[in-house]
Amino acid sequence: MSNETKRGSALPSAQEGWPLLATLAAILTVAALAAFASTGGSDGIRMAIRLTARTSLALFLLAFTASALFRVCPNPWTRWQLRNRRQLGLGFAVSHLLHAIAIIALAVTDPKLFADLGGPNMLPGGGSAYLVIAAMAATSFDRTAALIGPVAWRRLHLFGAWYIWLSFMIAFGMRARLDMAYWPFMAALLGACALRLIFSKSPSFPLLRR
Ligand code: HEM
Prior knowledge:
Blueprint: H1 3-6, H2 17-39, H3 41-64, H4 66-72, H5 76-83, H6 85-109, H7 111-116, H8 119-138, H9 142-176, H10 183-199
Helix pairs in contact: 2-3, 2-6, 3-6, 4-5, 4-10, 6-8, 8-9, 9-10
The site of protoporphyrin IX containing FE has 21 residues, from helix 3, helix 6, helix 8 and helix 9.
């Protein structure tokens, strides 16, 4: 970590590093439970699925754009974002774990509604994204990152970041075709893509480069 990214870290501990991840995990869990409890039953589970999809998007975009945003606009906020991008990425993984738990709850308690929502059709694409997320989360610790080495780590995390970006584009894109309320999510995804392609140090899909 550079001195540049270390500066400005005099924040309360719950806003930094691993305590930040614990805080995020607690907030996400309480929010998902509150979404479920708001109506209960299948509707409550659907609320939790949609909420966790959106919290996942927010955390993913924060991690995805951290390096590019710091380059464009170095300030205390972007410095914090860059310094904590690993925890933000793991926060995304926690949020998506809650998405998976809610999906399983819906599939078990209301299989007909799950089928009507197209759940079974999402299993191949969504399942492969979950494998990528699991691999990235498992290698987000110093010891596990060292086990696979820097080259494999970089390839996995660069490929994974774009794969998850594409998964969000597809999931929100399908809904945006039918409902304009989803357009801001598409705009955020496209904006993050442009930002990363233009300003990030390692913006592109790794397998396309020599
Ligand atoms: C096996 C994997 C997955 C299954 C079975 C699945 C299932 C579902 C279902 C049934 C819904 C609709 C809930 C409703 O309309 O009430 C949903 C919503 C959504 N999912 Fe997933 N999902 C999976 C993985 C993923 C992944 C990997 C992503 C993105 C990286 C994702 C992003 C979304 C988004 C963006 C929504 C829409 C949220 C909204 O309406 O605001 N899902 N998912």
